[in-house]
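Working notes for the structural subgroup meeting. M.R. asked for a predicted model of this chain before we commit to crystallization trials. I am recording the input and output together here so anyone reviewing the notebook later can reproduce the run.

Input as submitted:
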Amino acid sequence: MTNSPHPDHDRGLEFDLGTMFTRRRTLGLMLGAGAVAGLAACTPAGNGAPASAAATSTAAPTTATAGTPEATAQVTRALAECTAATADTPEETGGPYPADGSNGPDVLTASGVVRQDITASFGSSTTKAEGVPLTVTLTLLDNAQGCKPLAGAAVYAWHATKDGKYSLYDQGLENENFLRGVQEADANGQLTFTTIFPGAYNGRWPHIHFEVFESMSNATSAGQILRTSQIAMTEASCKEVYASTGYESSQQNFPNTPLAADMVFGDDGGVHQLASTSGAVETGYTAALNVII
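Returned structure, recorded in token form:
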């Protein structure tokens, strides 16, 4: 049976502007104007070149915890790639299910939203979203300041379940808020989320949404957004994960929307927002992306 979220789901930036034109979104888009060109470097775990849609490895993942050699290496690569970049991370749609106050629920002002592990709901429910483990590391860099790390900035991240559904919006998940959370960047501009590999649904390439805020206080008060964008998952990792138990609907939906045809990533083949990914179904995956603002 094909998984079919709301027909308006992620129809693109133009559609969102027409249906969710709020003060917060207006501010976020104004700040991001002119930044829709492709990002020239966005794979901190790579070798300095944009990853291909099939790029992945089967090595056991390592979490780039602040202060570890892995984190230091990621920062070094991120700075080098930011210096060589010709454009910032593109501004993208937040989709119709952001839960940031611009379209329905506002999870950002809820107690408990600041957390690294976003697999379970918080508050009145502790239901956990099941799926293949995924650790996501973002490195935030200020291009206008010579690629200076955005220490103290905050990121709100959210994505679909293994079945392509969104908490707080889809039927049966209205009282759940899992797969959503906020983290603060460290001195190197890095932050990490522990989650599950997102599922695929018709009309979109598998992805993770995120909003960048200048500070944690701005994020948790649903304040001004510096950048709204999305992370694209690699083709090879999607094929591996979707062949595993529990992702049956994603395996069916995944071939229906190629990366080049995706309404968000399709303008440049997705390479500028493609996460550098490693791991295996048995051990979990890691995904890393430079976010240049």
